[in-house]
Amino acid sequence: METVSFTQFSRRISQQGVMLRRTRLDTLQVNLGKLCNQTCTHCHVNAGPGRSEQMSLETIDHVLDFLGDSTAATLDITGGAPELNPNFRYLVEEAVKLGKRVIVRSNLTVIFEQGQGYLPGFFRENKVEVIASLPCYTAETVDAQRGDGVFERSIQALKKLNEQGYGDDPELVLNLVYNPPGMSLPGDQSKLEEDYKKALQADHGIVFNHLFTLTNMPIARFAEYLAREGETDAYMCRLAEAFNPDTLELVMCTGLASVDWEGYVYDCDFNQMLRMRIGGARPLTIKDATDADLIDRRVQVMDHCYGCTAGPGSSCTGALR
Ligand code: SF4
Ligand code: SF4
């Protein structure tokens, strides 16, 4: 078998004379737990219906206390399917009262789970920005990645959001997320956005604001897939070959921090999945954290960071360049 190798990410960036630092805190991203109604092949959270980890009300109150004193203007709520956390509504409403912009990362199909039909109206009332996964505009590709019937239910959910004014009213932002199948890297974001807009409008009458392209991160379920296929090294080499130093000043961790369901704090959602807690053996929790603990701090990097810096770069809000 051919042996493949690449330079460690930390070495690569020090060759560029760069050390990643969080220079400001714009966004606090909070993972409410691993419970999800789907089991997608590329999921970097290993979420699914069998998972029981959920952020408690006590920890949610610590998040809100932190936000009340923080410069972070945006609360970005993710999961699993964060809507399935029993304290989800409370968190959104209280964050809105604090004057924060609230983003919810929704898998769309959760709207059809028992007791979740209120969501489109609730999102509108709170002017929640919805970021929704839709890895293609064809049923075949979406269902292969996300499960049988997911495409059709996603389309129905998008229609419900459009009925509320999402994608049309400037205050009701609906963004979609694309991630490529298998080991491919995403194509040009603006071209793909154009294709999505044409296809979703023509086939289903759906409108949305922007498409974010994401690189599949070599962690959790996608890492297991790569290992099963014997493609881990090949994928890492592909990412490393596409390394783009111009993305370094824009990667998410320079302005974001991430909190897990237990309240531990990380440099980003991906470091969270790898349990790379800020503070190491004396981990920082959101209960004790202040902006000063997070701003002007060095970020912990590892080789998965190549996923954020390949080609045009990748982040929770799409391409960086
Ligand atoms: S990718 Fe999103 S929708 Fe799919 S299993 Fe993971 S958390 Fe759930
Ligand atoms: S994975 Fe991306 S966001 Fe996270 S620390 Fe690495 S470069 Fe920063």
Amino- and carboxy-terminal Cα gap:
36 Å
Tally of individual helices? 12
Distinct small molecules: iron/sulfur cluster
Relevant CATH superfamily = Aldolase class I
**Biggest sheet overview:** 8 strands, mixed
Overall 3D form: globular
How many structural domains? 1
Sketch the topology as an H/E string, one letter per element. HEEHEHEHEHHEHEHHEEHHEH
Brief summary:
The protein is of the alpha/beta class and 321 residues long.
Textual characterization of the structure:
It is a single chain. This protein has 321 residues and is of the alpha/beta class. The protein has a single domain, classed as Aldolase class I (TIM Barrel), CATH 3.20.20. Helices cover 34% and strands 12% of the residues. It is built from 12 helices and 10 strands. It has an 8-stranded mixed β-sheet. A two-stranded antiparallel sheet has the order 1-10. The mean pLDDT is 95. Bound molecules: iron/sulfur cluster (2 copies). The site of one iron/sulfur cluster (SF4) has 12 residues, from loops.
Describe the secondary-structure layout:
Elements: H1 9-15, E1 21-22, E2 27-31, H2 57-69, E3 74-78, H3 88-97, E4 101-106, H4 119-125, E5 129-133, H5 139-146, H6 150-163, E6 174-178, H7 189-204, E7 210-213, H8 220-229, H9 232-241, E8 256-259, E9 265-266, H10 269-273, H11 291-294, E10 297-298, H12 306-309
The structure holds iron/sulfur cluster (2 copies).
Residues 36, 38-40, 43, 45, 47-48, 79-81, 107 line the site of one iron/sulfur cluster.
